[in-house]
Amino acid sequence: MNVNINELAHYYATINISIIDVARTVVPPGGRCFGRYTPPFSGIVFPLRGRARMFFNGVPYEMEYGKVFHAGPNMSLDKEVQGRSEWAFMVIHYQTDDSAADSFPYALAHFELEAGYNTRINDLLHRLYTICTTPGKLPKLRAKSLFLSIMDEILTSADNRRNEGGQEIVEQAIEYIHSHYMESLTVPMLAGHYALNSKQFAYLFQKNTGMGPNEYLIDYRIRRAKELLSTTACSVAEISACVGYSDPYYFSKLFKKRTGFCPSVLQSCLKENIG
């Protein structure tokens, strides 16, 4: 499931949550369990050490420290430890009211978040584990507060990591545009290279460059066209094709709109100056 961090933050800020329990489990090397089901409430899994592969409703997840996993109620569950080390993890089981499930589907879904190496999440998690074993109403209130602090820390870390990854994606996309600007490029095509939809890709591009991907592509093509007009004897139609436009008339209109000159006029002026 593709998770929207802002939507998920809104979800946890508004729903009514009851903490069922916090469990800590250690599975020896080679341990495996198939054909089971998750409990009748939602769970958040925190790998602590070692590696394992879990399947929620048949979808595989690579369980390792730095990642956090969510599973909905009554999902098919298979798991097996990877490598020669034991696998340790903690899981928070929680429940929401029925109305929340209708408004926000996250409680019923399985998904993964990359929080990275965040020691504060571990500290809060172990505090929650201790409080959940303490009887009384006050510990229950503290447990809910700690749970929200954990989610805040996870979502903030995951959002920061996505932003860092977004910058790298945009840098790669710019490099790709520079190498393939003469070809037929579209935003969906570019987005597909990075497993994003058009909206996600356009958002990241705008955020990191200050302009949309289409705007950037046009700007780069026009700059390349100006270079070709000043350094070659190619016709406007040939230059149009060289920078990715099969229709010379459309290219001429676009060029004039961007520069204030028709490409043929600019080419004549440049030749006169050179002469």
TrEMBL record:
Gene3D superfamilies: Homeodomain-like. Keywords: DNA-binding, Transcription, Transcription regulation. It comes from the Bacteria. It comes from Pelosinus fermentans B4. Residues 171-269 form the HTH araC/xylS-type domain. This is Helix-turn-helix, AraC domain-containing protein. GO terms for molecular function: DNA-binding transcription factor activity; sequence-specific DNA binding. InterPro entries: Homeodomain-like_sf (IPR009057), HTH-like (IPR037923), HTH_AraC (IPR018060).
